[in-house]
Write a structure and sequence with these properties.
Rossmann fold; seven-stranded mixed sheet; binds 5-O-phosphono-beta-D-ribofuranosylamine; 210 residues; 35% helix
Length: 210
């Protein structure tokens, strides 16, 4: 069993999708900590309702960045976190955490990276840009996290076909549905130690390869 920390800033639907699969045993892990910069988001309400430990990290609570980063790392270490899942977390992760948890931090992005990622590409802005580009496909990407936004090695992607009739909202909804399937699958693979690095690229091992 792995100890998972979920980092959230918004509604937390991906976090909830992962949490459900830890509860039904499909993911051999437990969400032991939820970290957020926003104490008033939907994800935090859900964590409270489900008695999951919460850690709020923001400028209001810790005005000194060094203290903030140190205290967050201590909270992760104290909870014996093995895996960090960013799920709609709107802040850049501090260096000390990226270094401590190399290849143990996952993020989900609502497009096919490396396209439509990086600073400024969040929420509906991503889908707006995809539709404007005239691309044939969008999709979801799960990747390891490094010190830049949406930049680390890609672990898994799933495509979503763009329809002529698509609106930003309709595309966002279909991509989110795929995110709720893909992210738990990758978290499961990570908890089962099935993500390996091959020539610096992550690959998910199938069960018959183990
Ligand atoms: C998702 O679209 C995810 O890809 C992106 O932020 C959104 C979070 O949504 N990183 P939710 O909070 O999981 O509902």
């Amino acid at each position: 069993m792995k100890n998972i920390a979920a980092f959230v800033s918004g509604s937390g639907s991906n976090f909830r999708a992962i949490h459900k699969q830890t509860l039904n045993g499909n993911i051999p892990g437990e969400i032991v900590l939820v970290v957020s910069n926003n104490p008033n988001c939907g994800a935090i309400t859900y964590a409270e309702e489900n008695s999951i430990q919460i850690f709020i990290v923001n400028n209001t609570r810790f005005s000194n960045p060094d203290t903030r980063e140190y205290t967050l790392l201590q909270a992760l270490l104290k909870a014996e976190v093995d895996l960090i899942c960013l799920a709609g977390y709107m802040k850049l992760l501090p260096q000390n955490i990226v270094q401590q948890y190399k290849n143990k931090i996952l993020n989900i992005h609502p497009a096919l990276l490396p396209d439509f990622g990086g600073k400024g590409y969040y929420g509906m802005k991503v889908h707006e840009a995809v539709l404007k580009s005239g691309a044939e496909y969008s999709g979801a990407t799960v990747h390891f996290v490094d010190e830049k936004y949406d930049h680390g090695p890609i672990i898994a992607q799933r495509k979503v076909k763009i329809l002529d009739t698509d609106t930003v909202e309709a595309l966002a909804e279909r991509v989110l549905k795929v995110e709720h399937e893909l992210y738990p699958e990758v978290v499961k693979a990570s908890c089962e130690n099935r993500i390996i690095m091959e020539n610096n690229k992550p690959r998910i091992l199938e069960y018959n390869e183990n």
